[in-house]
Amino acid sequence: MSEIARGTLYVVATPIGNLDDLTPRARGVLAAVDAIAAEDTRNTAVLLSQFGLRTPLVAVHDHNEGGVAARLVERLRGGEALALVSDAGTPLVSDPGYRLVRAVREAGLPVVPVPGACAAITALSVAGIPSDRFCFEGFLPAKAGARRERLATLAAEPRTLVFYESAHRIEAMLVDAIAAFGTGREAMLGRELTKRFETLLGPTLGAIAAAVAADANQRKGEFVLVVRGSEDDEAAQLAEGRRLYAALSAHLKPSVAAKLAAELSGAPRKALYGGE
Ligand code: SAM
Q1: pLDDT tens digits for 213-251?
Q2: With a 6 A CB cut-off, is 261 part of the ligand 1 pocket?
């Protein structure tokens, strides 16, 4: 059994597929705490039973997190040790938990990370796409219009982009990604990572979309899409210039806003603002 500290919240990563990815430390903490706050108690009960654990569970999800957080802070104050898990991977990463963690930290109580699997990092680690700087974009908006708008704002982003996607939107998402980034943009689609049918597709968005369209099996399961950032400096400067111009023109004369935005971004002033 692990040594655990009283009055402490442990934030514990669980496997994203392969059960062997639960670390010995995570197992020890889950066995030793007084209760585990879980996104879906039925899912976590299955995980615990696979490890022969019977620690009591408390449901914490997006709809009850505010109220439950206050009660869990009281339990911690009373000296109990608690763990927070999500259905899979690292809590708080496209998963509930940040309100609870914030409440515990604001109460001045210790929060201890117990790291492990995370689908975004797992995909990045096998993509072979520059990973020194990356943007985690999580799930795109479900509605097509909003999704396309979000992708358009990312078209000139120079950092590598990481997206989560579910089976029922993967095809539409790839079509929209191609419209925003171009068919030749380098990318990797990680499907069912660490599981039996793990697949890595690439090397471009066009090739990935073709492989997914050609084989219904490639549309099943869970997905992480890693997209190389834009290598087009001019496009990146223009996007940054437009962003700055939009922000500055709310406070300054348009001509002054355009001059400043051009200086700061390197984009040509005329491309930001037509007037004198
Ligand atoms: N907290 C989790 C983490 O640390 O990665 C993510 C939770 S989010 C609700 C679930 C999404 O993560 C899935 O829709 C998928 O995009 C991605 N994901 C989770 N497990 C995966 C896997 N084994 N293979 C590929 N993607 C996965």
Answers
A1: 999 999 999 999 999 999 987 777 888 888 899 999 999
A2: no
* Pocket-testing residue among 16, 20, 124, 199, ligand 1, by greatest number of atoms within 8 A of Cβ: 16
User: Is the bond preceding 96 in cis, omega lying within 30 degrees of 0?
Assistant: no
Q: Is the pLDDT of residue 160 over 70?
A: yes
Q: What is the pLDDT of residues 127-154, one digit of tens each?
A: 999 999 999 999 999 999 999 999 999 9
In the reported structure, the alpha carbon of residue 271 is separated from the centroid of ligand 1 by a whole-number distance in angstroms of 40
Helix axes 170-181, 205-214, angle to 10 degrees: 160
HSE of 173, CA atoms in CB hemisphere, 13 A? 24
List the end-to-end C-alpha distance of the chain, in Å, as a whole number: 72
DSSP readout, 165-218? EEGGGHHHHHHHHHHHH-TT-BEEEEESTTSTT-EEE-SBHHHHHHHHHH-GGG
225 ligand 1 Cβ < 6 A = no
| Residue whose CA is at the smallest distance from ligand 1 atom 8 | 94
**What's the pLDDT tens digit per position in 204-217?**
999 999 999 999 99
Instruction: Measure 252 CA to ligand 1 centroid, in angstroms.
Output: 44
Going by the DSSP 8-state scheme, the letter that residue 220 receives in this structure is S
Domain boundaries, the chain: 9-117, 120-227, 233-272
CATH topology of domain 120-227: 3.30.950
Report how far residue 82's alpha carbon sits from residue 9's, in angstroms, rounded to the nearest whole number.
Answer: 5
Does CATH number 3.40.1010.10 belong to domain 9-117? Answer: yes
